[in-house]
Design a protein that fits this description.
It holds the Pfam family DUF779. The chain contains four helices and eight strands. It has about 140 residues and is of the alpha/beta class. The longest helix has 14 residues, at about 15-25.
C-alpha cells in the first residue's frame, strides 16, 4: 500500500512567498505566530526567527516557505479542523509584524478539511516539544 503524504495544516500563497522573500533578504530566517487575539492579533505575525519565544501554550503547525508557523494552543482548539493559507493584502495592520513597513499585511484564509484529508493530518507539536526536536527546530 503506498504511503500517503500527510495533509499540511498550513499553506502559503505565491504573493505571500514574494513578501517572505523580501523580508528574509532584510531580516534573515523568519517565523510566524498566530495568536488568536482580537483585532490584529487574529492575523499571523511575522518575526525574525527566535524573536518570538514559543512555549507549551503554542502549537507548531508546520512550515510555510521555510518558515516555522506557530499558533496559540487556545486558538488551535478552534481551528484544528481547518487548513490555513497565509496570504498577503495591501493595507497596514497595527502590529509589530515585519511586513507592516511594506504597506501590506499577512492574513489567514481557511477552509474545513475534508474527511479524507482529516484521516492523514500532519502532526503538531507544542512549542516546548518543538524546541527539543532538532529535526524541527533547525
Amino acid at each position: 500500500m503506498p504511503e500517503t503524504t500527510p495533509t499540511p495544516r498550513v499553506l502559503v500563497t505565491s504573493a505571500a512567498e514574494a513578501t517572505i522573500d523580501l523580508l528574509r533578504d532584510e531580516h534573515g530566517p523568519l517565523m510566524f505566530h498566530q495568536s488568536g487575539g482580537c483585532c490584529d492579533g487574529s492575523s499571523p505575525m511575522c518575526f525574525t526567527k527566535g524573536e518570538f519565544r514559543v512555549g507549551s501554550n503554542d502549537v507548531w503547525l508546520g512550515q510555510i516557505y521555510g518558515c516555522d508557523f506557530f499558533m496559540s494552543a487556545a486558538q488551535f482548539e478552534y481551528w484544528q479542523h481547518t487548513q490555513l493559507t497565509v496570504d498577503v493584502v495591501k493595507g497596514r495592520g497595527a502590529s509589530f509584524s515585519l511586513e507592516i513597513p511594506l504597506g501590506v499585511r499577512f492574513l489567514i484564509r481557511s477552509r474545513i478539511f475534508t474527511e479524507a484529508e482529516a484521516q492523514h493530518m500532519a502532526p503538531v507539536y507544542d512549542g516546548e516539544e518543538y524546541l527539543t526536536r532538532p529535526e524541527l527546530a533547525q
